[in-house]
From TrEMBL:
This is Polysaccharide export protein Wza. The lineage of its organism: Bacteria, Pseudomonadati, Pseudomonadota, Gammaproteobacteria, Chromatiales. It is found in: Cell outer membrane. Residues 49-122 form the Polysaccharide export protein N-terminal domain. It comes from Thiorhodovibrio winogradskyi. Its main location: membrane. Belongs to the BexD/CtrA/VexA family. Residues 131-211 form the SLBB domain. It comes from the Bacteria.
Length: 217
């Protein structure tokens, strides 16, 4: 059995630590999954429809101030969640939608210029941890992927390059937190991407963690 280090994006505490523990438990398990399949859930539709991207540390933010090019430009969101623009040294940005950030910038800039109009455009999306979908274990490129509206398991597997040759795809587990409680569901990735069984595809939610164990040979 081969040991592999988790990618930098996937090293985290809390929910991800639980997922890594689940992966360790599953690695030597050759029996049928003890978890139920992902159930149809109307909550998935409502969460996806109400989803708005929130600015995260590492994002590049393009700030356009109408009529004042000197105050416009692209700036990074620092690891502390703040950004700095001309005239504003420290503006909290992390956790705000682009529109919310634009309104806050307008308020600050109004101290220096008359009736500023600001537009914020986000580039190079990173995503807050609670707005990411994480993949650990035997994916070709394990990663934390920013959630997108209507994102499915198939979309996620394309993002991470599919499974490694050592993966036990049909023993994968989805870790999901619902109302603060952890739930685990069986996922049959081999059936989906190797056998073309589209019935094994399902909608993802922000914060989901996909754990792919190594096959037992």
């Amino acid at each position: 059995m081969k040991n592999r280090d988790l990618p930098k994006e996937s090293r985290a505490s809390g929910p991800l630590t639980i997922a890594v523990s689940t992966l360790t438990l599953l690695s030597g398990c050759a029996v049928q999954s003890q978890y139920p399949p992902v159930p149809p859930d109307q909550r998935q539709l409502s969460v996806q429809e109400s989803y708005f991207y929130e600015v995260a540390p590492g994002d590049a933010v393009n700030i356009f101030v109408w009529g004042i090019p000197e105050l416009s430009g692209t700036v990074p969101v620092r690891p502390d969640g703040m950004l700095t623009t001309p005239l504003i040294e420290d503006m909290p940005a992390s956790g705000k939608t682009p529109s919310e950030l634009a309104r806050d910038l307008e308020k600050e800039l109004a101290l220096y210029v008359r009736a500023p109009i600001v537009t914020v455009i986000v580039n190079g999306f990173v995503g807050l941890p609670q707005q990411q979908v994480r993949v650990v274990g035997e994916a070709t490129k394990p990663a934390a992927v920013p959630f997108r509206k209507h994102m499915t398991l198939l979309d996620l597997m394309i993002e991470v390059g599919g499974l490694t040759e050592y993966a036990a795809g049909n023993k994968a587990v989805l870790v999901r937190f619902i109302d603060g409680k952890q739930r685990e569901y069986s996922v049959r990735i081999d059936d989906l991407i190797r056998d073309g069984d589209i019935s094994q595809n399902f909608s993802l939610l922000p914060g989901d963690i996909l754990v792919i164990p190594e096959a037992w040979f």
